[in-house]
Amino acid sequence: MKKRSIALTAVFTALSALLSANAGTVNWTVLASEQANTGDNAAAENITSTQAPSSSGRYTDDAGNIYRYSIINDGAAVSIDGKSLIKSTEIVLPSYIEGLPVETVDGNVIRNTNVTSITLPETCKKTYGFLNNTTIETVTLNEGLEIIESHCFEGCTSLTSINIPSSITIIEKDTFINCTSLKHVKFSNGLITIGERAFSHCDLIDIKLPDTLETIYGKGFGFNSSVKEIIIPSSVKTICNSAFIKCGLEKVQLHSGIQTLEAGAFSGCDNLKEITGLTDSQIAKFWLAYNDTPWAKSIVNEEEPFIIDDNNNLVAYVGNENNIVIPDGVEVIGQDAFSGKDMTSVTIPSSVTKIERTAFYGCENLESITIPASVNSIGQLAFSHCTKLKNITFEYSKGILSLGSSAFQFTAVTADTLNTNKRKYTDQQNPFANTALDPEYAPSETILPSGSPEPEETPVPSASAQPTEIPEAAGELDVSVNNGEVLISVNGSPVTFPDEKPFIDSNDRTQIPVRAVAEAFDCNVDWNGDTQTVTITKDDRLIVLNIGNKNMQVDKEIITMDTEAQIINDRTYIPARFVGEALNMKVNWDNR
């Protein structure tokens, strides 16, 4: 055994000499593979060798911090991985390990430590994984960094400021969400896209956007109550739904070159009293982006209550009449145009060809409607929850009417009060869900023909073929309880709840705040306070829940739950399991 040790020593000595001759001044500080797996900190700190680069190992810096690393890019670079052993509270990560540039940094390197400041290597191109680190106050990002992965700094509640280098073109979704102390962000020219919820639920004081920015996605800056003013640079072409929802904005400067300003972009900005930079035509076109703000209400002309854009789209009705006559020339009745209005009748002119989704949603006193022959499309939920709507008449036309999912759900229509005039319409998604005409309650023959002349035969489009296999789950929803706290994660990413928290109800079901559903499940959530209805849409999936009702609508199917949506302390909660499964997610439960 002794002779073998002497022989091995001789071999290592020879190898060391050979490497020294060829490696110049490069020194490698690593752990042997056996010791790398022992967890012995003392051994890790004291082992220094000059061996050839390996596929992985540990590196010790001058302060005694020990980093796990792995060789990437076919031996051309290094990645600093998680589960490292950190002593310092302020760390500067090494730029080179084993003579190779450090191009990737896993933020889990400082997981469960007291690090307050971290500087990325000047060689770093990609970083991720600082999620929910509550001690880090300062992060220095290097110029040359190309990718900050989504969720990277989510929940870093002590982070106060950040400089975005010009090499970053996209800030991914959820990158800085719930950084509740983040007040200052310095953007550099080069940035093109700000992703969904990228800076949602921060505490930004001022937002100075770069002149290269083109797109701000949904809730990109949502829920920043301290920001008062913002200038949208002329480079920005698209601002998506809820981009600045519930911000403290008082003044917004837009520009006439903007191409898309989606509905709800400034929803809930209750202090927004001034918007500049739009033409009169654009003000009408983008009305739903800011229709609930003080500014929009201040420019309403009661003598002209119809907001109509240059394309003859009726964007909104801002009047208070009970009997409404839509002006001739209107071609499209837009989404939410009359939603929730207190009217008893409406006259639709023959110029209208399309009624968009939720156009008359929740008009509870509307009693009758005549759909002109010119209308060839009625969108999803267009007349949903018009609970007194009983008399519905379709004027005859040879053309087939496209009738959207649940277009007339929760109305009072019956076989005797529906007059189709033998108009043919697509009926693939049960437009009369939850009415007397629902196949669950009445046979299809109850849709009786009227006395109108028999129309020429027009083929009805056949329903899409049903899938022969059960689709794979769209993702995983994990629910667990740890020391009395309910924890939610989606596809492995924890969902954070800044104020309202999930809870277990009396039926042993997890209730999740509805405001978190859109972020957790990446879907659209609408709340109608008048009808106390939650409507969730994602792709082609429609989910409707009513407070206090155990019936949940999923597309045209009614599912009976063993619990119900609730309102607690003026906050709306919905059952996580049932909604997750309705979205085709695998739901896992762990009661630790």
User: Helical element count?
Assistant: 7
Low-confidence stretches: 1-53, 442-472
Instruction: Please count the beta strands (DSSP E, at least 2 residues each).
Output: 45
**Looking at the structure, what is the overall shape?**
globular
Instruction: Give the integer mean of the pLDDT values.
Output: 83
Helix/strand-derived category reads: mainly beta
Helical fraction equals: under 10%
Beta-strand portion reads 25-35%
Radius of gyration: 30 Å
Distance between the termini: 51 Å
Describe the main β-sheet briefly.
7 strands, mixed
Could you give a quick summary of the protein structure above?
10% of the residues lie in helices and 27% in strands. With 592 residues, the chain is mainly beta.
What is the secondary structure topology, with strand pairs?
Elements: H1 2-23, H2 33-36, H3 41-46, E1 56-60, E2 66-72, E3 77-80, E4 90-92, E5 96-97, E6 100-106, E7 117-119, E8 126-128, E9 138-140, E10 147-148, E11 161-163, E12 170-171, E13 184-186, E14 193-194, E15 207-208, E16 215-216, E17 229-231, E18 238-239, E19 251-253, E20 260-261, E21 274-276, H4 280-285, H5 294-298, E22 306-308, E23 313-317, E24 323-325, E25 332-333, E26 345-347, E27 354-355, E28 368-371, E29 377-378, E30 391-394, E31 402-403, E32 418-419, E33 475-482, E34 485-490, E35 493-494, E36 503-504, E37 510-513, H6 514-521, E38 524-528, E39 533-538, E40 541-546, E41 551-554, E42 557-560, E43 566-568, E44 571-575, H7 576-582, E45 585-591
Parallel strand pairs: 3-6, 4-7, 6-8, 7-9, 8-10, 11-13, 12-14, 14-16, 15-17, 16-18, 17-19, 18-20, 19-21, 23-25, 24-26, 25-27, 27-29, 28-30, 29-31, 30-32, 33-45
Antiparallel strand pairs: 1-2, 2-3, 5-6, 22-23, 33-34, 34-35, 36-37, 37-44, 38-39, 39-40, 40-41, 41-42, 43-44
